[in-house]
Amino acid sequence: MKKCVAVIGAGLSGIAAIKQLTDEGHDVVCFERLDNLGGVFSRNEIYDDLHLTISNYFMAYSDDVPSNERLKFWSKAEYREYLNSYVEKFNLEEKIKYSTEVTSVRQTPGADSWEVEVSCNGEMERLEFDSVVVCSGHFQRPKIPEIEGLESFKGDVVHSKFYRDKNFYEGKRVLCVGMGESSADITSEISSVAKKCILSLRRYHAVAPRYMAFQEDTYFTIDTSWLTSRIVNRLPHRFHAGITKGIFRRYVNSRNPDLRIRGQWLMKSGPSFHQAVTKNERLFKPIADGKVTPNIGGIQRFDESGVIFKDGTREKIDAVVFCSGYKLEFPFLDKQISDMRDLFKQMFIPEVGESLAFVGFVRPQQGGIPAIAEMQSRYLAQLYSDKTKLPPIPEQRQIIGQDAEHWRSEYRITPKVASLVNYCHYMDSLAELVGCMPRIPSLKEDLRLRVKLLHGPQFAAQYRLSGPHSMPEESRKFLLEFPNISSWRRIAYLEASAFLCKVMPRIPRFRIRVMSSSRTEPAII
Predict the structure, then answer these.
(1) pTM for this structure?
(2) Within 10 Å of residue 337's Cβ, how many Cβ atoms?
(3) Cα 114 from Cα 128, distance rounded (Å)
(4) Which of 42, 74, 283, 327 could pair with 78 in a Cys bridge, judged by C-beta atoms 3.0 to 4.6 Å apart?
(5) Could you tell me if 194 and 174 are in contact, meaning their C-beta atoms sit under 8 angstroms apart?
(6) Cα-flanking dihedrals φ and ψ of residue 321, to 5°?
C-alpha cells in the first residue's frame, strides 16, 4: 500500500529516508528549513575548515559506495559534493521543498493521518500525510551549561555551533569548554592565534586518531581497523582490553610527544569500549607544543574577567567557546521526548506506532550515522509497505528496556550520552528486522567472504548482499576487493577465541556480547 509521507529535514538522515521510502514506491515530500541540503553540513551551518572524522566508505550510503575513491576522510566540501551527486543520481531533488520550516505536526483526531503545518516565505500552509518521519537531527538547540557567575562575565561567550573564524580570537585569552570532534578542531584552530588557550574538561576523555599509530599498514583508518570488526565487537570485552592496553603502552613510551600525551589520556580515561570516544586526535599537537593548556576537573564559577576552576586556580580570559553539545528538541511536536532510548529501536513511540518515526537520532560509537539512518529507513519502508509489522506494544516496551540496559552496560562510563550505541550490535539488530542480515559462511563454505564479514570493517554494503533491494554482485565485489585488515595469525587467534566462547557460554567472562533483544544468536563460529 502506497503512503504519503512527510520527511522533516534534508540532512544525512532525511536524504536516506527519501531514498529508501521512494524505493518502496511511497510518495515523499521533504521539508527543509534551509535553502540547501546537508543539514549540519549545509553551506553556512558549520565552519568550512572541517574534515570528517569518519572515513568516506562509512559516511556513504550502501547503495552508492564511492569505490572509485581511495579510503580517506572527506572535507566538508567533498562530502557536500557526494551528497549532491547522490541526490542528483537518484532524482531526489524534486522531492525536497527548501526554505520551508515545519511549525506544527499534529495527529488528526479520529483519523489515521497527520496534519503538518509549514511556513514558506511568510505564508502558512496545512497539509495532510499518512505518516511523518522526523530527521531534524541532534544539532538544533545549543546547550550551554549553567555555571555560577557566567551571566556576569564581560567577555565574549559563544557556542561552537556559531563558531566560524579563528581570527576573531587573535591575541585573546580564550577558554574552550568541553570535548568532542568539533572541540578538537576549534580549540586547535584558536590556539594557533590566541595569546593563551585553555581547555576545560571534567575528566580525561578517550580520544581515537583518524589513523592508528604502529599499525602494520598505514592505509587503514581507525574505523576500518580490526578493532571495529564484527568478531571483536562480539567477543567479550576482556579480549578487546587485552589488545588495546598493549597499544596504549606503546603510545606512552613513544618518543613522539603527541602520541605520548594521547596514551596518558587513554590510560586515565578508562576502557574506551565503555564510553563515547572522540574521534579526532588533532588536539594533542597543540597540547604538546604548549599552545593549549588543559585543566581537568571542571569549572567552579566565572567572574567579570576570568574563570575559577575546581582545583582553585583562576585564569584571566577574554572569551569563552562552549563545545558542550545540544539539547534534544522537537518544537513542532506536542510530544516531549527526553531520551531516545525510550523509543523502540530509538525510532518509534510505542503508543503512537509506525506513523510517526524518528530517523538518525542514534550516535554510533564507531561507524557513521548515514549508514544507520539508511538502515532505519529501510526498516521504515518495509513497515509502510506492510511487509513487516512492529511488535505488540508490551513486547516493544520489553525490548526498549532490554536495549537500554544493554547500552547502559556497554557504555557505563558515559551513561548520559543517551543515544550512544555500538554500531555493529545496532545495525545487526535492525538488519534482522529488515531481513538483510548477512549470513556468515563457515570456513569451508566461503573462507574469503567469512573473513570479510567477521574480521573486516562493518561496511553497510554487507547489508545489500541479500534482502529487500539487495545488490549482491556489487556488494560482494566491493567487500572482497577491500584489503584484509588482519593478518592470518590474528584471524586464527580471534577464530580460536570465538570457538572458546562458544564451548563455555555460561562463564560470564567468555559470554558473547549481543543485544538481548536480538532474534538470533550471533553466528561467529
Answers:
(1) 0.93
(2) 15
(3) 6
(4) 74
(5) yes
(6) -115, 115
